[in-house]
Amino acid sequence: MRLQDKIAIVTGAGAGIGAATAEVFVREGAKVVVADFNGDAANAVAAALGENAVGCKVDVRDSAEVKAMVALAVSTFGGLDIIVNNAGRGMIGTVETTGEDDWDDIVAVNLKGVYLCSKYAVPALRARGGGSIVNTASNIVTFGIKDRAAYVAAKGGVSALTRAMALDHADDNIRVNSVAPGVIWSNYYDKMLKEVADPDAFVRGLKARSPMARVGQPDDIAKAILYLASDESAFATGSMMTVDGGASAW
Q1: Residue 100 and which of 47, 163, 173, 237 are 20 to 30 A apart at CA?
Q2: Which domain of life is it from (predicted)?
């Protein structure tokens, strides 16, 4: 039980990487606030995990809702030891084709959300003598990708903010790290399979984006997050763990 008696919040936990992380955390002994913009999805995941999980609807762009999420962890389970800032969304577009409102929203969800959740989590972590913050960045921060200007910029900000927070809160015994996934199967790809003309070719294209020739699964990232959240990574802070099947090595 690598997280025995730990209390955690996982955002974006209604599906995908977040849901897999919440499941792994509970299995490893943690009590978890399963937070998501989709409250029904959050509650469904929490219900499936049992008494050591509670659902929470949260918009990570809204400071009042983030404060309430942290307060829920403290009032329900007695404190906070870990927060996984995983909530995010993507969008196709260059700087020329991305609308200003869309740019602001991508940055707000992916980067401001990390800022707000960390801002209000830090006092609760400090009250427990320290803890761990794990942010979901992306392997694209190291090499970029076409037609994702706002997303790449926001995830690059997450990577830089991780390093800044690691320095700012080392004296609080709060470690701050990030995980950088590559192509990970998600509900988005399930939807795409129903829309593309050649589903087999679509899947082959995804597999071809890494030398391991497979698409990552949410559990692949959840296990990396578990390591960064647990005491097994006690000497790691300010780091980014890339889990992308070798894509960033090309």
Answers
A1: 163
A2: Bacteria
pLDDT class of 191 with cuts at 50, 70, 90: confident
Is residue 18 included in any domain, yes or no? yes
| DSSP annotation string for 135-195 | EE--THHHH--TTBHHHHHHHHHHHHHHHHHHHHTGGGTEEEEEEEE-SB--HHHHHHHTT
Burial class of 64 by CB neighbour count within 10 A (0 to 12, 13 to 18, 19+):
exposed
Q: Which are the contacts of 27, defined by CB distance < 8 A and separation ≥ 6?
A: none
Domain range for 120 is 7-184+217-242
**Model's pTM, two decimal places?**
0.96
Which residues belong to the active site?
151
In the chain, the number of structural domains is 1
Q: What is the mean pLDDT of the chain?
A: 97
Closest CA to 1 of 231, 174, 178: 231
